[in-house]
Amino acid sequence: MNVDHEVSLLVEEIRRLGTENADGKISVTFGVLFNDDKCANLFEALVGTLRAAKRKKIVTYQGELLLQGVHDNVDVILL
User: pTM score, two decimals?
Assistant: First the structure.
């Protein structure tokens, strides 16, 4: 699995599903990402891809690990 490729696909999906926030950055909730059919088919491990993107400072979100259901309302922000 090519992590850089997965992260670039994640950026495209955040841009597709997200909206511009007050800071001018694109954000989407984790629940929207997780429940999107295209994302479900595209990413084997969405949470792992998000963590890799956060480590590379491409996205940010509250917390360390996002779990479906519990963290559905957490904003994932494209930096």
Answer: 0.92
